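#lab-general

N.A. 3:47 PM
ok so I finally got the sequence cleaned up, no stray characters, all 379 residues accounted for. can someone with queue access submit it? mine expired

B.Y. 3:52 PM
send it over

N.A. 3:53 PM
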Amino acid sequence: MTGVQTCALPICLQINLARDNFNLKVDVRLPAQGISVMYGPSGSGKTTLLRCVAGLEAQAHGLVQIGSDVWQDDGAGIHMPTFQRPLGFVFQEASLFAHLDVAANLSYGLKRSDARNKEAVLKEAIALLGIGDLLQRRTDQLSGGERQRVAIARALATQPKLLLLDEPLAALDLARKQDILPWLEKLRDELKIPMLYVTHALDEVVRLADTLVVMEAGQIRQVGPVTEVLSNIDLPVVMGDDVGALLEGRVCALDKQWHLAQVALSTDPLAKADTNTETHSALWIRDTGLQVGESVRLRVLARDVSVTLEEAQRTSIQNHLACVVEAIHPDTHPSQLLLRLRCGEVLLLALITARGAHDLGLQVGMPAWAQVKSVALVK
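B.Y. 4:20 PM
back already:
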């Protein structure tokens, strides 16, 4: 590798790190904004990759380029030290100063910033994370979720060009985790800076990820939009009862009599939904106070999808989607098959018995109907 290289996408990572019992070898390009989630089992290299990006691994070689900024290029003799890299790093533990209150902890973070408007930026971070009422509290009086919100605000106050989050929810119990997830969704939707997020928790992936990077043994197995990667049955990210599709769409209708909301599905979550029609690319879900036009994410497990050759006319299942069988793959047990179904713009997965597939004569390319028995709202 020689000289500064130009990236097709704003984040370009070409990193090699060799250890006695582990090798990290990564070559990936990631989008300019949103959350890119590093997902995989413990020991796959997720945290090590973030440390390399931050400049914390002295033996790492390669290229780290964020937009036009080159933080490391060994071929050109460039290696920016960590303290000069405009990044924010949030760890599993919030690492707040116990002898300072929240306001003082946040002010300490400003020492890394020489921007003239740093006080205004701090106020924006406080508002964005909803911690204005915590400023005078001691850090030992905060819940785990509140501590992490303060840590994220402190990182944002430095005006980073990249935010690194290393399993920020791993130390929280389920209740605290549910408290902070909406704030992370807000960061994803409102911030213009890219975030690299490490987790091995699937529930965090489906709620937060825009781009999914699947890692194993120091290498990247898959990378792409989260909806596409989770629907790949050739290299499935999840197997067994948890396998399923992630869908995005907008609420297009409300049925107030039956407390239901209809979601128009799209591969473009920003696309304007048709509010006047029921189409095969829409699903009815339970109305939890949704508004027409609201953007949502849905999770449909493969075990909750059945397949018919004709649309069922008298059935309690409300969601029927016309589809084409796009792929058929063996599941973990020989009695089961995993199907990928293309329903207009979107993909569903169906877990059915091999005998059922034989009885229907299912083959790749056949038209069929997907019956969706259950849909979970994840956003």
